[in-house]
Design a protein that fits this description.
The strands form 4 sheets. The protein has a 5-stranded antiparallel sheet, with helices on both faces. A 5-stranded mixed sheet has the order 13-12-14-15-16. Strands 6-9-10-11 form a 4-stranded antiparallel sheet, covered by helices on one side. It is about 55% helix and about 10% strand. RNA polymerase that catalyzes the synthesis of short RNA molecules used as primers for DNA polymerase during DNA replication.
């Protein structure tokens, strides 16, 4: 629960979405909204629940309805979602069965010894629900059918297949160590199975070391992040997530006390996985296999992570260990230190390229560029991208312009997906987007109007000189001028499209204490600034018209345009003086 303290008409607390010492999180009972003036988050009860619990709107609606004892139509428990509920029920039973076979049954003794030999404790086995599927084709299927589940339902989970040879169900994971694949809400969506050393090939087949559940109505590999259900609070607290490849790579560090770690099953991320992690973290620390930098699929992953504004770092295992699991089992303190000293992804890429190809000859330098430039070209910030181009040029003993041209050449020759072409065309000159200065000034002006004692009087004075250029602010201004706002219940006559922006601006206005004299002075300066912006645009437009009429030798229109230009220049001079 969030401890709220009453302050005037509102309640305040330390914001749960960012670290702060002085409360800036404000709740308005009248408007039924919240706003943090530190990080900017705001909205209604649904927005708060979504942000605080990291769920989407549908999930927030269903969970809040459950808390309030309200039954929703077409909810998760009804209609077309009955299949999903049934799959979850079966998956829970399957997970219990596998876990029992590992920890209690003699058939799981070999698998249990294997897990214990890898340093995994009984407590961790229980926490992750690790299990074992015996080398018996229909053992678990028969168990589940006795509990009332049908063949068609078991097949629907993806855990079972139907043998065309024997016409009976078989367990896809038989003979394997099994990890339940749990989503961030704690629901078991599927399973991952690992072959044990010495497993019978006739049972487990010649498949990969790991296999996952196939795609089902509830399990989608592209959205699965292993361990997030356990790690999310630590990730949220640190705003940092450590990403590894496999289940043991995640489980070993977690057991050793590194709680903000998850696994994504491979070196290539999907956009869905990254978006899910971005809900909790700002920093993405990669602890992947040593060949990550040479993996072309990783380029797209880094591009996606950059797009979501992650600060991307890498844990360099210095070639001592092949993966985090091995490092933690050998020396957990050493691994923790490597995590603390994680370096920028771009430094890691350049270091890996230099270590791989060397600087002894031109061929090695060329390969360094081939490996590093595709990554560096994805850096969104022009300043940071330029810095790494200089760094790379210095390392290979070249000038930065040559390296930049080489990057341009590689970009033009590389066939990027359609969705990326426009970004690639401008990547060398693209600058960080800036917030529209006019909108910022208009927002501040509206905050000052709403905070005034006589809001209508102040609004009329501003309106006499200025119209808001941004539609949302002018619509709010029109409501104030029409005297349609009940300032005791301010959202009552506000349309849905304006409620969020109106509510957060009003809360900001209410939180400020300002003398009328200082308020008037700041309002006058902002109005003068906005009028100057308008007049400069008007002057630029009329200058184009003057040039046009001169070319056309249109004396009448030329004189009119010049007169307008002079009048605008005089007005500009007046408003610029008022800004001082």
């Amino acid at each position: 629960m969030l401890p709220l303290k009453k302050r005037g008409r509102h309640y305040v607390a330390n914001c749960p979405f960012h670290q702060e010492k002085t409360p800036s999180f404000t709740v308005s009972p009248e408007m039924q909204i919240f706003k943090c003036f530190g990080c900017g988050k705001g909205g209604d009860v649904f927005t708060f629940y979504e942000e605080f619990n990291h769920v989407d709107f549908r999930e927030a609606l269903e969970e809040l309805a459950k808390i309030a004892g309200i039954k929703l139509k077409n909810s998760f428990d009804e209609g077309q979602n009955k299949n999903k509920k049934r799959i979850l029920e079966i998956n829970n039973e399957v997970a219990k069965f596998y876990h029992y076979m590992l920890v209690k049954h003699p058939l799981g003794a070999v698998a249990k010894k294997y897990v214990m030999d890898r340093g995994i404790s009984d407590e961790t086995i229980k926490l992750f629900g690790i299990g074992y599927s015996p080398e018996q084709v229909s053992l678990i299927a028969n168990y589940l059918k006795k509990k009332g589940f049908f063949d068609s339902e078991l097949i629907m989970t993806g855990t079972f297949g139907n043998s065309s040879y024997s016409n009976r169900l078989y367990d896809r994971f038989m003979g394997r160590l099994v990890f339940p694949l749990v989503d961030f809400r704690g629901q078991i969506l599927g399973f991952s199975g690992r072959v044990l050393p010495g497993a019978n090939p006739a049972v487990v087949g010649q498949k990969a070391k790991y296999i996952n559940s196939p795609e089902t109505e509830i399990y989608h590999k592209s959205q699965m992040v292993f361990g997030l259900n356990l790690a999310k609070e630590a990730i949220r607290q640190d705003s940092t997530v450590i990403v590894v490849e496999g289940e043991f790579d995640m489980i070993s560090p977690y057991q050793a006390g590194i709680k903000n770690v998850v696994a994504v099953k491979g070196t290539a991320f999907t956009e869905e996985q990254l978006q899910l992690l971005r809900r909790y973290a700002e920093t993405l620390v990669l602890a992947l296999d040593a060949d990550f930098a040479g993996n072309h699929a990783a380029i797209r992953s880094i591009e996606l992570a950059e797009k979501l504004d992650f600060d991307i770092k890498v844990v360099d295992l210095l070639g001592k260990f092949k993966d985090p699991d091995e490092a933690v089992r050998d020396n957990p303190e050493w691994f923790k230190k490597r995590v603390e000293e994680a370096i920028s992804i771009w430094d890691f890429i350049i270091n890996s390229a230099v270590n791989t190809f060397g600087l002894e000859n031109n061929k090695g330098k060329k390969e360094i560029l081939n490996m590093a430039l595709p990554f560096i070209s994805r850096i969104k910030s022009e300043v940071i991208r330029s810095d790494y181009l200089h760094r790379l040029a210095t390392i290979i003993g070249s000038d930065v312009e040559s390296v930049k041209k080489e990057m341009e050449r590689k970009i033009s020759n590389f066939q990027f997906p359609i969705s990326n072409r426009e970004m690639i065309k401008t990547i060398l000159v693209e600058k960080e987007p800036e917030r529209d200065k006019r909108d910022e000034a208009e927002e501040r002006l509206m905050t000052l109007i709403m905070g005034a004692k006589n809001k209508l009087k102040v609004a009329k004075r501003v309106d006499a000189d200025l119209k808001f250029a941004t539609i949302k602010w002018q619509k709010i201004m029109d409501l104030i001028l029409a005297n349609r706002i009940d300032w005791e219940m301010p959202l009552e006559n506000v349309t849905e499209e304006l409620k969020d922006i109106f509510g957060s601006t009003f809360l900001m206005a209410e939180s400020e204490s300002m003398e009328s004299f200082h308020r008037k002075k700041e309002i006058d300066k902002i109005v003068a600034k906005l009028k100057s912006i308008d007049l400069k645009k008007q002057i630029a437009d009329s200058a184009q018209r003057v040039a046009k009429f001169e070319r056309e030798d249109n004396v009448e229109e030329l004189n009119k345009a010049e007169s307008e230009n002079i009048a605008a220049l005089l007005q500009l001079s007046k408003w610029q003086k008022l800004q001082k």
